[in-house]
Design goal:
Strand content: over 45%
CATH class: Mainly Beta
Number of domains: 1
Structural class: mainly beta
Radius of gyration: 19 Å
CATH architecture: Sandwich
Bound molecules: manganese (II) ion
Amino acid sequence: MSNLDARPAVTECVTSAPATPEATLFEAREVPLGGIRGITVSRVLPQRGLPTIGAWCFLDQFGPSTERMNVLPHPHTGLQTVTWPIAGEIRHRDSIGSDVVLKPGQLNLMTSGPGISHSEFSVSTGQMHGLQLWVALPSGVEIEHAFAQYVTLPSFTVPGLSATVFMGQLGDVVSPATVYTPLVGADLTISGDATLPLRPDFEYGLLVLDGSLAAADIELSRGPLLYLGTGRCSLDISGDARAVLLGGEPFPDELVMWWNFVGRSHEDIEAARADWEAQAARFGSIPFHGTDRIPAPPLPPIRLTPRKRR
Ligand code: MN
């Protein structure tokens, strides 16, 4: 059985963290996305006091809903977009020539590098449900813009739980997707009682997509994010649920995030906004859409500052 491989790591796990690691619920907030007929999403990251989980800096859940996704060209910088559909198909087009349809079970991973732009449109009828995540890119390394679609992703299995590892590593199972910092993103199906091997140097969060579960003495169903902190060698989960696990080494940098941009300072964001509004080469263009694009909102009349950890 493949699950035996993970167990030595659990027994060898050493942590200097407090005996009782953190377990905190963070409420979701409903956010209407911009643009005509834009959809409403349930946002659980970033939060006041919790800007990131590892390098994960943004998590929206859209649906389940029959609302269409009609997101015109818009820019990104300083991040990777991770699109993980649960139901419905999405057509992705970007400024580096990609034009693909994404289906449930597949991953779209777009790396902005200094700049990229893309559009996303529903191309199926019926229910739309999925996750839009961002991963902050580390500073001090040059990372080119890129796009990749992963059609086949590896599975992780222990008694009571199976998972698709779409980003990073869970146990000894590694996603083929390109990552720049140690992290994990996995889609869990829990049926009964399971023990998940974790890394004590990673912080983790859990979000239920369907059903309900219990973990760290907390009952969790759709809505809030359960933040699990660092210092855990394993996590007992029980229930009948589908949930997403995010984790990673706590991100060392304070991030300034505004609209679709991730930077390190007010000036980074100001420059990205100005470049998008000037149609600068940095963000390219998507020929199919002609002049259609989402204009940047005005900058707030304050200096943008990093979101701090508690
Ligand atoms: Mn986007």
